[in-house]
Design goal:
The structure holds two protein chains of two kinds. By secondary structure, chain A is an alpha/beta fold. Chain A has two domains: about 10-260, Thiamin diphosphate (ThDP)-binding fold, Pyr/PP domains (Rossmann fold, 3-Layer(aba) Sandwich), CATH 3.40.50; about 265-295, no CATH class. Chain A is built from nine helices and eleven strands. In chain A, the strands form two sheets. An eight-stranded mixed β-sheet of chain A has the order 2-1-3-4-8-7-10-9, sandwiched between helices. In chain A, strands 5-6 form a two-stranded antiparallel ribbon. In chain A, α5 runs antiparallel to α8 (about 235-245). In chain A, about 55% of the residues are buried. Chain B contains 19 helices and 21 strands. Chain B is α/β, with parallel strands linked by helices. Chain B starts with a strand and ends with a helix. In chain B, β4 (about 70-75), α2 and β5 form a beta-alpha-beta unit. In chain B, the strands form three sheets. Chain B has an eight-stranded mixed β-sheet. In chain B, strands 9-8-10-11-13-12-19 form a seven-stranded mixed β-sheet, sandwiched between helices. In chain B, strands 16-18-17-20-21 form a five-stranded mixed β-sheet, sandwiched between helices. The chains are: A alpha/beta, B alpha/beta. At the A-B interface, β1, β2, α2, α4 and α9 of A face α1, β7, α7, α9 and α10 of B.
Chain lengths: ~290, ~600
């Protein structure tokens, strides 16, 4: 078994024994299936994978895999994932969570992860609602949406997750949905394989608090693959153009993939460590730095 | 001749007064003296008032000293801003800038007649000899060499080294300024000589550093390979040291986007199997609370350094205080024990930081090192530390047998479970902030929750028996006692020696472990005590209250507590102890003749 994944794995090898707490029909069931398939395709053994999440329905997801999981605190999956990656750059690091976790309480972190270009794949299960706390307005809820915390309709514009990450310069940006499980699995696989930060927004319907239009049937009605539109994923401006239709159209596939991925943060760290290691005083002599002669 | 001298110097930001203090300290170390230097500033970035205290002694120094022996004021406005930080007494020689045009009998120090007051045309001498007033601080160093016998050779040797790259001309200009200062002192001898005795340890190797750098160096020695943090005064130098050094050891630093991300990354690195840390000050500690709770329930080793400053909120960002004690012990919700350690000096910062990593690793817990601005920023001369005497502890890793049926939170006799990390075959588990069963799987069960709370708190019981994390000084059976921690402990050590010299039967307890409260050790200490003081730089007497929460203190034990930035002086503590003795004697007399 090596870091290049020469061992053969199947989707079931990544499925844990824990029974999901999700409502029957929840889109996240498909997402976790997609992740199993993507991981099997990539072929890294489960113990070389660290899967981090925050809090929310979708943030339970690491526990449903056989990887090392970390179901942390609300909004903070990304800082923890970065610490893991820096501590051990050889691990495959995944982060996941909901739209509230990623774009509301933890919204400040994603820009900085993008800036650092660490080789981490971030999967957001975007359902435009807070499900775990039973149906409040989320950062991606449409303006005018009526929820238990917006009885007279939301007065706020939603965040556009796709534009958000594209604008900050993410090297890989894609969208998927349970309407196309095979497509979702291959999109996640491509994200994992991208050498650098990769973002996948997944429109994952909330069957309990979601609106009619956001259920599978509604999503199917507005979905089209970026391939079918002839979109060139190397074209960032075209990607941003298409991303503006978030909320109206459901574009599936890769919006943007940097054709010339720059070195990752991990690469640069390794370089620096190698360059400086010769200057290290033995640890037991580190106080010699304070000698005044 | 003197064995000990305390200098206090103040000027405005550009006067180079702190740099003069640095030169003086280094020269003193080169001449074999012990020295401590503290700095204090206004919160302006540039300009504004700045000051330093330098204490130099022929024997090891316990604290930055009380009243000044020598006060140097480059202007009075700035000097006076430091108030009690630069206390002048009847035994102080005051040296000030003649260009202030204030006659020696009219200097603006109220209610005190210094031993001697001397106006020196410092700026004029700098201009005349070096061609610029910027050499004022070098003139001051010359004056000090002339009057007090420190650094006649070593000061210029240091300056020469520092300025070597800037050219011989500048070095020569400084030499002339220094010589002029020294000549002025020779021509105007003090009424009472205050020259210091030569040191007997001249030529021995000395280290000079401050608490923040010492903390970071100790962390690297202890095996720390990751630092995640966010700049905040007065802790930032810890991160700076890491960015200079840790890459060399295969480690990494993340200057994060905020305090939460900083500790989050450190939690992640620990989960990934590396020793990791963060450092902050009060406002950052408040922000990090939730993550500290996460590290407690996920049982992940982590060291958090809190360099205290005046609070709440922004408070006094550049001044010292001990008021984060409650926050350190109690912040984060839920039933949590999180060990809190406190160094008392730059020298013991090394031991305490190594100990913090050892405790974090052994007990799989976040540990707070509660430093303070004074220790963080003060420079001390130190004798070399023999690092080979320090044991380094690593977390308990699972054995091959453990991994056959791995349960991350397995109940064990000492409540400590072997911990795996990503990359370890057979060790996969779910770490979580949610309550979990032994395997790590989430649960809502009240009985599991109670059992796990038990595991996570009982595991610390042995820590409360660690007598080596406490120091008792003085007669162990004394009826009068002091308790003090952090930088205040140094003042109390000196007060103890002074009180003993006056014949008082006193003892001092210095806890390095503040939390969990080691009831047994305190009870033993207080057994002989009838009167005592818990001495601390908090307004609310937090230490006193923390002890009262856990034990029945003798009735005669009271807090001596005050807000930060107002240092305790050894003399006032001795006076307070004498009052306690008087009360004790009165109450004994009262016992003979009962009164209303």
């Amino acid at each position: 078994m090596s870091a290049t994944g020469t061992c053969e794995y199947q989707a079931k090898d990544y499925k844990s024994d824990l029974k999901p707490i999700w409502c029957p029909g929840c889109g996240d069931f498909s997402v976790v299936q997609g992740i199993y398939r993507a991981l099997a395709a990539v072929g890294r053994p489960p113990h070389e994978i660290a899967f981090v999440s925050g809090i929310g329905c979708s943030s339970r997801i690491p526990g449903y895999t056989t990887a090392y999981g970390f179901n942390s605190v609300h909004g903070r999956a990304l800082p923890i994932a970065q610490g893991i990656k820096l501590a051990n750059p050889d691990l495959l690091v995944l982060a996941a969570g909901g739209d509230g976790d990623g774009f509301s309480i933890g919204g400040g972190h994603i820009a900085h992860l993008i800036r650092r270009n660490m080789d981490i794949t971030y999967i957001v299960m975007d359902n435009q609602i807070y499900g775990l706390t039973k149906g409040q307005l989320s950062p991606t809820s449409q303006k005018g949406r009526i929820t238990c915390t917006s009885r007279y309709g939301s007065l706020e514009e939603p965040v556009n997750p796709l534009l958000y990450v594209l604008a900050y310069g993410a090297g890989f940006v894609a969208q998927a949905s349970p309407t196309d499980l095979a497509g979702m699995a291959s999109t996640i696989e491509a994200a994992i394989r991208y050498p650098g930060f990769a973002f996948v927004n997944i429109q994952s319907p909330c069957v309990t608090y979601g609106e009619e239009a956001q259920q599978i049937k509604g999503l199917k009605a507005i979905s089209e693959t970026l391939d079918s539109l002839g979109h060139n994923p190397a074209d960032r401006l075209a990607a941003m153009d298409l991303a503006q239709q978030y909320g109206e159209k459901l574009h599936l596939g890769v919006f943007y993939r940097n054709p010339e991925p720059p070195p990752t943060y991990g690469d640069l760290v390794k370089e620096r460590q190698a360059a400086l290691s010769k200057d290290a005083l033995p640890k037991e002599r580190i106080l010699d730095l304070f000698i005044k002669k | 001749m003197r064995k000990d001298l305390v200098f206090g110097m103040a000027g405005s930001g550009g006067d180079g007064i702190v740099s003069a203090g640095d030169s003086l300290l280094q020269a003193a170390a080169a001449e074999g003296y012990h020295g401590v230097m503290t700095k204090s500033f206004g919160s302006q970035i540039r300009g504004g008032e700045s000051s330093c205290r330098v204490r130099i002694s022929t024997s090891p120094i316990l604290n930055p000293g009380g009243n000044l022996d020598v006060a140097v004021a480059l202007n009075w406005e700035d000097f006076l801003k430091f108030g009690a930080e630069l206390p002048v007494s009847g035994n102080t020689v005051v040296i000030y800038e003649a260009a202030t045009n204030i006659p020696v009998d009219q200097i603006p120090l109220v209610g005190v007649t210094p031993l001697q007051v001397i106006a020196v045309p410092i700026a004029a001498m700098a201009k005349e000899t070096a061609g610029t007033e910027r050499a004022k601080n070098t003139v001051v160093l010359g004056l000090i060499a002339g009057w007090f016998g420190i650094g006649a050779v070593a000061v210029m040797k240091g300056i020469r080294k520092k300025l070597a790259k800037k050219g011989e001309e500048l070095v020569e200009a400084n030499q002339r300024a220094f010589d002029a200062g020294r000549a002025f002192a020779m021509e105007h001898p003090l009424k009472v000589s205050m020259a210091i005795e030569p040191s007997e340890t001249k030529g021995q190797v000395k280290l000079i550093t401050d608490g923040n750098d010492m903390c970071a160096a100790a962390a690297i020695f202890a095996g720390c390979q990751f630092f995640g943090g966010y700049p905040i005064t007065p802790s930032t130098e810890i991160m700076q040291f890491f960015t200079d050094q840790v890459w060399k050891y295969g480690g990494a630093v993340l200057q994060a986007e905020d305090e939460i991300a900083g500790i989050g990354a450190a939690v992640g690195a620990s989960f990934a199997g590396k020793k990791s840390m963060t450092a902050t000050s009060g406002p950052g500690l408040s922000l990090k609370s939730e993550m500290m709770g996460l590290a407690s329930i996920a049982e992940l080793p982590l060291v958090i350094v809190d360099v205290q400053r005046g609070g709440p909120s922004t408070g006094l960002p550049t001044k010292t205080e001990q008021s984060d004690l409650f926050a350190a012990a109690f912040s984060a919700h839920g039933d949590v024990i999180r060990p809190v350690l406190a160094p008392t000096s730059v020298a013991d910062m090394f031991r305490i930081t190594v100990e913090a990593f050892n405790i974090a690793e052994y007990y799989q817990t976040p540990v707070i090192v509660l430093s303070d601005q004074e220790i963080a920023a003060r420079k001390e001369t130190l004798d070399p530390i023999d690092t080979s005497q320090f044991k380094i502890v690593d977390r308990l890793r699972p054995t091959a047998t453990d991994l056959q049926d791995y349960r991350r939170f397995k109940q064990t006799e000492n409540h400590i479970s072997p911990i795996s990390h990503p990359g370890m075959l057979g060790g996969t588990y779910l770490a979580s902030g949610i309550e979990h069963v032994e395997s790590g799987a989430p649960t809502n069960s009240g009985s599991v929750h109670a059992r796990m709370n038990d595991k996570r708190t009982k595991k610390f019981d042995p820590l409360k028996e660690r007598r080596d994390l406490f120091e008792v000084l003085g007669n162990p059976d004394a009826p009068i006692a002091m308790v003090a921690w952090g930088s205040v402990a140094g003042v109390c050590r000196e007060a103890l020696a002074m009180a003993q010299a006056k014949g008082l039967d006193v003892k001092l307890l210095v806890p390095y472990l503040l939390y969990p409260v080691a009831e047994g050790i305190y009870n033993d200490f207080f057994r002989s005590v009838q009167k005592g003081l818990v001495i601390e730089q908090t307004h609310l007497a937090q230490t006193f209250k923390l002890l009262r929460m856990h034990l029945d203190l003798p009735k005669g034990v009271k807090p001596l507590a005050r807000s930060g930035a107002n240092p305790f002086l050894p003399g006032e503590i001795v006076a307070a102890l004498q009052n306690l003795l008087a009360e004790l004697q009165r109450s004994h007399e009262g016992n003979l003749q009962p009164q209303e």
